[in-house]
Design goal:
The chain is 38% helix and 18% strand. It is an alpha/beta fold.
Length: 416
Amino acid sequence: MSQTAPKGLRLHIGLFGRRNVGKSSLLNAITRQQVAIVSHVAGTTTDPVEKPMELLPLGPVLFIDTAGVDDVGALGELRIARTRAVFDRTDLGILVAAAGEWGGFEAELLAALTAREIPVLVVMNKADQASAPEALVAELTVKKIPLVHTAAINGEGIGALKQRIIEQTPADFLSSSAIVSDLVGPGETAVLVVPIDKEAPKGRLILPQVQTIRDLLDGDALCMVVKERELRHALSLLKSPPKLVVTDSQAFLKVAADVPPEVALTSFSILFSRNKGDLLTQVEGALAIDRLQPGDRVLMAEACAHHPIGEDIGRVKIPRWLTQYVGGPLDFTHVQGHDFPPDLHEYQLVIQCGSCMLNRREVLSRIIHCREAGVPITNYGLAISFSLGIFERALSPFPAALELVRSMAQGLPGGR
C-alpha cells in the first residue's frame, strides 16, 4: 500500500524553511531512508523531493522536501517559485527553523501557510544547539500552532514529530468523501461503461475506474462493468433498472442513447469533479463555454504526464468538440502534472481533467486561482457533456447542480 497508493489519495506534507536548517535530514529521519541529499552546503535541495511512505495510523502520505525560501540569485528565484507552488498541493505544512533562529523568512512562511488555511506545525531543528526563543513559544501557543524540538541528526524528537503530524492531519482527510457509493446505496446496482481503446492501458483499468469500483464495493453496492458496445445488452439482462450508469466521458453520446431517460447517468470525470474539487463551481464554468468566441484562449490542464497518442481526449477530442460548438478555432494551451500558470488572465476558460492523480487541495487551489483571476474553470466531463448537448442529462444524479444550471439559464437569484 505504501508504494502503490496513488499520489492523489495521499496526505501531502510539505517541509518548508530556510536553506540548511535540516529539512532533508528531517525527511530522512522520518522515513528512515536516505531519500534526500544532506550537506552542510546551503541550497543542496534544488527541486522539491517527494517521498511516498506509510505513516500509521494515517496510512499513505507523501512528504515533499522543498528548496530553501531564502535562496539567492536567478536560479534561487526559480527554486523559490517551485517551493511556493508546493503550497497549492500541501495538506499539512511543516515549517522548519534551526538552532533557535526565527526571523522574517519564517514569519512570512507561517503567514502564507495560515492564510491558505493549511494546518501547520513548527519544528525547531538542531535543538541540541539551541531551543526556540521564549517569545516564539508564547506566540505559537496563542495561535495554537504546535512546536516540536528535534535533532534530526541523532533522531531526537522524531517520534514526537510523527505524533504531531497525526494530530494536525485535516479532518476531511481522515473522513474522505465517497466517489459514487452515496449516489447508489447498499444493495443497488451501478453500471460502469469502460471503453477499451488505444488509450486504455494494456491489462488494467485506469485509476478513476478502479477507485470507483472499490468505492461501490465499500458501500455494499452492486457493480456491473461493460464496454459501450455491450451496454444495451447488459441492461436487458438486469431484472430491474440500475440506480446509476457511469461512463467514460468520451462515450457520452452513445451511452446516453442506450440508457433509458429515467435512469441517472453521469461520467467518471464528473464524479471526480465532485470528489476532488467543487462541482458547482465547475458546472458554472462549463456554462461559460457559451460565451467563448473564435480565437479565445483555453487552458487544458491534465494531471497525468502520459504521452498522448491517437485521438487523445485532452489534445484532440475536446478541442474538436469545443471548436465545433463555438463555430471557429480556439487557441488551446496544454499543461501537465503540477504545472499550472501563475498568471491566468490571458485565458477565457480553464478545463481541468478529472484529477485522479492530484489531491483535493491542489484542485481546490487551482479553482481559487481561477476565481481570483476571474477566469471560469470546468473539467473534462462537464465540458464534453455541455458541448455535446447532454449537459443536464449528465448532471441528473446531482440535484443542486441541475438547480444551478436552470436558475442561471433563467437569470434567477439562485445562480452564483
